[in-house]
Amino acid sequence: MSNKKKNNPDSDEEKVLAYTTNPSGYNPFEGLSNPDKSKEKKKDYPVRIKLEKKGRGGKIVSIVSGLKVNPDHLEDIAKDLKSKCGTGGTSKNGEIIIQGDHRDKMIEILLKKGYSNVKKSGG
Fold first, then answer.
1. What is the mean pLDDT of residues 43-62?
2. CB-based contact 42:117 (threshold 8 Å)
């Protein structure tokens, strides 16, 4: 006997429906994933924005930390923050670095994106 599991169509593994001819209120994707959980997850963790000047030649930068998203989405958020603040910046090591002190504007932008636990950190 082999140790491989047999493909059983009635197993409890995730099923994906490719096509249906029954449009009468049948939702084939019901129960597969809950998009509301992803919104709740976005709000659970703290997002902090701090001001930093050390090691940057006296230049001030605003650093957003605590965003638990994939790197591609982090780049999109960084691009949006840079364009709305009208300045340069980057995303490195899970943080977004924006040139200048734009903490208040960045808090407003992140709150509009659905992050509820956004605060300034530091002094």
1. 88
2. no
